[in-house]
Amino acid sequence: MRRLISALAVTSCLVTAIPTVTMAQGGLPGFTLFSGVEGKNQLPFRLDFGGQSNGWDRYRLRIPAKKSQLAIAQLAITYPEYFEGTFDPKKVEIRVKNKAVPLSEVKWDKEGKIIQIYPEQPVPAGTSVEVVLNNVKNPTFGGMYYFNCQVLSPGEIPLLRYIGTWIIAIS
Description:
- This protein is mainly β.
- It has a single domain (2-170), classed as Immunoglobulin-like (Sandwich).
- It is built from 1 helix and 10 strands.
- The protein has one helix at 2-25, and strands spanning 45-47, 56-63, 74-78, 92-96, 99-101, 103-109, 114-119, 129-137, 143-152, 161-170.
- A hairpin with an 8-residue loop joins strand 1 (45-47) and strand 2 (56-63).
């Protein structure tokens, strides 16, 4: 009888754990054990349409207020060479307090694997920022993709400063 109860307990734990893992892959960042990126450098994000390979999506890449200690005059997002998705530079937004910030320019360098975003006015220090990439065509093949965030503050030496990494899983 004890073996039967133990077996049922273990089975129920395994069965209930599977949907939790699946839901974590459906657009929200899940729990990452071995990524190579320290936890303090992992940035939150959301994929509005589930992150399905070869599908269209909207990426909501967030920068917490504690990470933006200086104003942001330029934002650069680099991504790996093996990410074969596409972006629509005309449909990129920066949102602060749920309001769109006017942009002066968005450059997508396909060969250099970088998206550069220039707000008209620097985004104030200490504010939460959301970068919205609309009309993203996900890669044909699923995988784990590291999108790195770098910023340039007004008046700084023109070197981009690393803020963190969004670890995006496409299934």
